């Protein structure tokens, strides 16, 4: 486009090859790009308007006392399940209510704490006890088709049965801050919040196992945490909830209005650019098609003149020959005349275009050139650049001696257009930058061509504001890195302690079992290569109420702290493997099985594994496998989970005697595993009395059959 703008119109008319290549394609690409950007802006505007409409509708509903608008927006799954329960069970709105509707919090000081701890539980649905089973069937029926995951249906009948009749919440518990006339809701709140002791300050929480402060610090299992504000930023409980929700939505509407205004400005700018590109493609296509044909006009005129000369030189005595020649030349002239007529029409169009260029474009460009010359002269005078002007004139005279004036003018015109385009582009970018900065930072705007006021503002920021921001950023980064290390240390300690609790549970079960007279015990010890980090992790539980970073804890474990900190903050891919090693709690312990013999001797499995064979080494293998299944299924947790419990073994217990096999199976069952054994027929007899049911697989040709065998009958046959 810049090459076409700088081209000489006379050169384009004389030589069609001078027309810049790809000009039409560039305009079409620009037009499509601007149109795509306009479409994206329209989509964003449409999305924002829909959001604004929805927010305004919710505000209107909240102002009329309809609290369902905020409820449907915050918990759509709960609202959907409520509609399904009412429709399919024929229940009224008062019979199926969200928990938050029947609660109130008189003391605003504890509003955030109650809202944050209850969280999604606020939207649990309370149904009459007699309809609870039917409600659960409806929930189960629609849970997948309506995406109803996470909605709670409290069993109010069981909650009331397990609550102490006539006893209210303790006066110092968080449950005392919640009031309700709903008996089941009262019992449910006592269950959820009754164990949390109210404390006015963080320092008051230490004597208690579970506690909470008004600023949402929560203590559970002697561990303090701060609730995420997103759990309580929007209130739903009590009369204060609706005004607060209205205020939040009005703030969002104000932000949407500002975004729409910005999108409107961008849309107007894109429409202006489309007008400058989309409407100019067709005239350029016509010009590209016409110029090559016009270039043939001089050649055709020369051919016509040559033919006319040949016609004048013909011998008039040879009539027949002349007639034949006339017919031939006449046909050629007719063909050339048609081409000439066609070219004449094209020339007429080009003349019109040339007249338009001469009457409009060229005078306009000449005016611009004169204006720019005046501005340049004024600039030289303003900058006291008479010496520069003299140098320019000297250079001009030197080039005049070397090149024709026409060549100098053409070169000067081309360079002038380039400089003019660059200057206009720079001025435009400066204008857009000044306007964008003023709109974004409300700096005001001036129509001066320079940016002196903005440069002064930049200098002020560099000299005064920037050092403050850099110091603040450095401090925030230091605090973030410190918090990262502390969180990793506490998490690893909890995981290591949890692993030891699981091993203690397994050892308590193993203590009553004998495998061929032997007893097994899981033991652990710290990994030597990570001993420094391990000691630091386990010692962190002694630091309470203050940061690990600020206490003498860091000085006591400086080497372990530095190792963990460097790995967590490293940015190189080659250090990721070392970081993963430090993040996995299992790498901090070495695991082994201690074997207790009937005579009182003890040995470690790692020491005897290579020396012995048979049942002595196979039995610990099955004990370890059962422990692995229990850990993978999370069966030995403080709060049991409803998980899969299947443990399958192929050709199991082949090298073990009957006593060891019985003890191994009992250990698996005590760990709540459902054991499935696959064994050859010759090994099955020894396992019959230790299993609940027996199946045998038979094959005939290419078909397999599973046949159930009565256990008692099989035992009688084995004994016989």
What is the gist of this entry?
The chain has helices spanning 2-6, 9-14, 23-63, 68-74, 76-89, 111-118, 132-142, 156-162, 183-193, 241-277, 281-294, 297-312, 319-382, 386-402, 405-441, 452-510, 531-539, 553-556, 558-568, 576-583, 605-608, 615-632, 658-670, 681-684, 711-719, and strands spanning 97-98, 125-126, 197-198, 211-212, 217-220, 223-226, 519-526, 589-596, 602-604, 646-650, 674-678, 694-700, 703-709.
Radius of gyration: 45 Å
Quickly give the structural class.
alpha+beta
Summarize model confidence as the mean pLDDT: 79
Query: What percent strand?
Result: 5-15%
Number of helical segments with 4 or more residues: 25
Largest sheet: 4 strands, mixed
| Low-confidence region ranges | none
> How many β-strand stretches?
13
Strand order in the sheet with the most strands: 3-4-5-6
Helix content: 55-70%
Specify the overall morphology.
elongated
